[in-house]
Recover the amino acids of this structure.
């Protein structure tokens, strides 16, 4: 997770391990937990069902992402210290 906006309807900036992108978070159960105070922060890892929707608009490919279901919420990954 890169950045989160807790305004209803806003997309979250997420990272899949290679690339950042924006995704709508459509899991109402998870959003309720966060709204009720579950700790959530930058760098947290979510294991999710992700839907990718591709359409063509004005001759250009458009891609949208939706987080359908959050299965697991993990603390940020820690890098090994040398």
């Amino acid at each position: 997770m890169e950045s989160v906006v807790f305004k209803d309807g806003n997309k979250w900036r997420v990272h899949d391990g290679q690339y950042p992108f924006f995704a709508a978070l459509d899991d109402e159960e998870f959003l309720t937990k966060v709204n009720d105070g579950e700790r959530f922060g930058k760098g947290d890892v979510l294991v999710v069902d992700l839907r990718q929707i591709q359409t063509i608009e004005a001759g250009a490919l458009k891609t949208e992402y939706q987080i359908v279901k959050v299965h697991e919420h993990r603390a940020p990954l820690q890098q090994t210290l040398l």
Remarks:
- The CA atoms of residues 60 and 69 lie 29 Å apart.
